[in-house]
Specification:
alpha/beta; Aspartate Aminotransferase, domain 1; about 475 residues; about 15% strand; Aspartate Aminotransferase, domain 2; 15 strands; 7-stranded mixed sheet; 2 domains; 17 helices; binds 3-[O-phosphonopyridoxyl]--amino-benzoic acid; 4-stranded mixed sheet
Length: about 475
């Protein structure tokens, strides 16, 4: 038997990884040749890799480690719960204290009458739950024709068949038979990339009206719901113009359809409020949560449901659930995570300290020749890379070529920033200090300088015609 530990040489770990481990969203052969970066430990906002590098994690893992790495309280909560009751289910008329305590707390924090929680182990599962909840709701209301869920191109709602179909990622739809029927995608409110000559305000209204156009085209009696991330995350941190959500809200109300806010990234403080819906003044009937719910320390997600929808669903048996719905250890860890977020006023820290500091430090990068804008809401933001700031031009090269070069230079400078096409996204742990934000921006500038040289050397400094 091979005992595999942190102390093994990196090359051996990489070889074993390449031999046996299939990575998500990765070209396997390419990675096998290059070798994966092996992360061995983490504390606060810093990761350590197997070569001893200290890397500033500008992505909070995958947008999820809100309270930062290495909080022993969460480990203790997990150990305590594992000793007392490591597992029991919530099917067939049973329950347990961790699920009760967590659902009560979520209901207390969630806006409006979002008082009911259906647990899952991820955001994807929670969005699959939502599809079935929404369609079952309309069935039970006597409107079984209302099946169509409207979403947006370039949305991300997960990777399972249902949630991936809700999402609007064309590269995902190209594989494995997505989207499932009765999901309709409208254009996204991405002014920088698609706004043309309109002002952001005009464009926000226009893209909201695309929802009304779609409802009318499909037939209002067939439309069940609209789903959107308050601020699109995986799509490149697309903060919609201020006019967008108020207009969407009006349209949703006019046609009496359900509104789902996918808060998987925005929830639990990321935007400077507990939920993105509060920051953007959205009134959803259902919220999807995951990630920051446990700061990623345990896999857990949920659908948070309003009184009306939960009341209708409760009228008969809802034939849906996961073995790990409300898993006691995940629930106990999530509850402890929320205690820390509350007691350490981390959401206020985002709003009052970290978000303004990030905006200032990253906006200063817009004097770099390659950076067109920095757009952010709270502690999620993105830099637009462009060969021509005035026209917001795209690069002539395949989208993402320049972004990838920039991401590689970030890595080389011990900074994790992800690229989405040619936008560089940032979403650090919420506990990041002003000094650490300064370090983040400094490393980003060095990476941009190095990437700029490479871009010029390779003849990529050219706008698409
Ligand atoms: N909704 C949203 C808004 C998300 O961002 C999901 C649902 C799915 O959650 P799970 O827990 O099933 O992954 C997500 C996940 C990236 C990246 O690199 C983003 C996500 C996941 C993985 C990678 O941007 N978002």
């Amino acid at each position: 038997m091979t005992l595999i530990t942190n102390h093994m040489p990196t090359e051996e770990l990489r070889a074993l990884d390449a031999a046996h481990h299939m990575h998500p969203f990765t070209a396997g052969n390419e990675l096998a040749e290059k070798g994966a970066k092996v992360i061995t430990r983490a504390k606060g906002v810093f990761l350590t890799d197997s070569e001893g590098n200290e890397i500033l994690d500008g992505m909070a893992g995958l947008w999820c480690v809100n309270i930062g790495y290495g909080r022993p309280e969460l480990a203790e909560a997990a150990a305590r719960q594992m000793k007392e009751l490591p597992y029991y289910n919530t099917f067939f008329q049973t329950t347990h204290v961790p699920a009760i305590a967590l659902s009560q707390k979520i209901a207390e924090l969630a806006p409006g009458d979002l008082n009911h929680v259906f647990f899952a182990s991820s955001g994807s599962e929670a969005n699959d739950t939502n599809i079935r909840l929404i369609r079952t709701y309309w069935d039970q209301k006597g409107e079984p024709d209302r099946k169509v869920i409207i979403s947006r191109k370039n949305a991300y709602h997960g990777s399972s068949l249902g949630s991936g179909s809700l999402g609007g990622m064309s590269a995902m739809h190209a594989q494995g038979g997505m989207p499932i029927p009765d999901i309709h995608h409208i254009d996204q409110p991405h002014w920088w990339g698609e706004g043309g000559d309109m002002t952001p305000e005009e464009f926000g209204i226009a893209r909201a009206r695309a929802l009304e156009d779609a409802i009318l085209e499909i037939g209002p009696e067939r439309v069940a719901a609209f789903i959107g991330e308050p601020v699109q995350g995986a799509g490149g941190v697309i903060a919609p113009p201020g006019t967008y959500w108020p207009e969407v809200q009006k349209i949703v109300e006019k046609y009496g359809i359900l509104l789902v806010a996918d808060e998987v990234i925005c929830g639990f403080g990321r935007t400077g409020s507990w939920f993105g819906s509060q920051t953007l003044d959205i009134k959803p009937h259902i919220m999807t949560i995951a990630k920051g719910l446990s700061s990623g320390y345990q896999p857990i997600g949920a659908s948070v449901v309003c009184d009306e929808v939960a009341g209708v669903i409760a009228e008969s048996e809802f034939n849906h659930g996961y073995t790990y719905s409300g898993h006691p250890v995940a629930s106990a860890v999530a509850r402890e995570n929320i205690r820390i977020l509350e007691e350490e006023n981390i959401v206020d820290h985002v709003r009052d300290v970290a978000a303004p500091a990030l905006k200032e430090a990253m906006t200063a990068l817009t004097n770099h020749p390659m950076v067109g804008e920095f757009s952010s809401v709270g502690l999620m933001g993105s830099l637009a890379l462009t060969p021509d700031k005035d026209t917001r031009a795209k690069f002539a090269a395949e989208p993402g070529t320049v972004g990838f070069i920039c991401r590689e230079r970030c890595f080389a400078n011990n900074l994790v920033m992800r690229h989405v096409g040619d936008r560089m996204v940032v979403s650090p742990p919420l506990i990041i200090t002003a000094d650490e934000i300064g370090m983040l921006a400094e490393r980003a500038r060095t990476a941009l300088d190095e990437a700029f040289e490479i871009v010029k050397d390779r003849g990529l400094w050219a706008a698409a015609s």
